[in-house]
Design brief:
mainly alpha; 304 residues; single chain; 0% strand
Length: 304
């Protein structure tokens, strides 16, 4: 889907417009790209460091390099296989630090819940700053009824599944139940942390770096330099959700940027170019750094 969207969005443009966009990309001031990647690196290091606060209550204290490698390998994997990164991240830290996979994966789920809470706060802030236009947009964007029905069906299936897992004595079900309890222990690690203040600080720092990484890139496109904070936050939230729609936002991210910025009165072409610049630089960075970390991980495992 990502490749199709890339082809479709570029094919819809005229040859002259594609050339103009390519010239704009080639003319980007590399200073802003370097600053953006610096903020990205700070966020990744903070995420890796924050992870130990969730693993310590279960008796594990991973080394920062191994945690950072697991995080970057996860970003690398998400570029090629949708949402595979979280699983691979758990596998990497399990192999490198001898942490049971189910507990590591449970801690990843727990931290994603914390990240989602921060993203919702950012979204609320964006709505407040752009209240009239954003509220009208979200009201007309989609019909919530199918989502409510789907959620109710999933909830019913989940309840029935839990009853089966709880009462069954089948060997396979018992293994699944034990695996699930391990994940649950990892999820509950967020409630048993001794360094709650440090965890909150790093969570806020991670998302501050994300926003800073996004904000400085507006200076790469002259037509977006004057975009106010409210618009930037709205575009950031839309971009964050688009990253989950395809592999690391492949194809859809530039389209999403074009749509949200043009909604606020900016030129679609400028925003589309901006989307390609920020998505392209971050994706290349994740592939290179994640690939290097993956290579070191494989070599380390061969020596074991």
């Amino acid at each position: 889907m990502g490749v199709f969207l890339m082809w479709y969005s570029l094919n819809e443009m005229s040859a002259a417009r594609r050339l103009e966009m390519w010239e704009a990309i080639k003319g980007v001031n590399p200073l802003w790209v370097v600053i953006s990647l610096f903020f990205a690196t700070c966020s990744h290091l903070s995420r890796a460091y924050r992870w130990k606060f969730m693993l310590e209550p279960m008796g594990y204290s991973p080394r920062l390099w191994n945690s950072f490698s697991a995080v970057m390998i996860a970003y690398f994997a998400n570029t090629f296989i949708l949402r595979s990164g979280e699983i691979l991240r758990g596998v990497v830290i399990s192999k490198s630090e001898k942490i049971p996979f189910e507990k590591a994966f449970g801690s990843i789920i727990s931290e994603r819940i914390a990240d989602l809470a921060v993203l919702l706060v950012i979204m609320t802030t964006a709505i407040v700053l752009q209240s009239t236009t954003l509220i009208d947009y979200f009201k007309t964007a989609a019909n919530p009824l199918p989502s409510i029905i789907g959620l109710a069906v999933l909830l019913t299936i989940g309840i029935l599944g839990l009853r089966i897992l709880k009462k069954s004595s089948h060997p396979f079900i018992i293994k699944v139940r034990d695996f699930g309890l391990g994940i649950l222990e990892g999820v509950k690690s967020i409630l048993n942390m001794k360094k709650n203040a440090a965890f909150i600080f790093h969570t806020l720092f991670i998302w501050t770096m994300y926003i800073a990484m996004f904000w400085v890139m507006k200076f790469t496109v002259p037509g977006l330099e004057e975009a106010p904070l409210g618009v930037i936050l709205a575009a950031f939230v839309v971009g964050a959700f688009s990253m989950s729609a395809t592999n690391a936002g492949m194809g859809i991210y530039p389209i999403a940027m074009g749509a949200i910025f043009s909604f606020f009165g900016f030129l679609y072409e400028d925003a589309f170019t901006f989307g390609w610049i920020i998505w392209g630089t971050q994706t290349i960075f994740n592939i290179i750094v994640g690939g290097i970390c993956g290579l070191f991980f494989v070599l380390a495992q061969r020596k074991v």
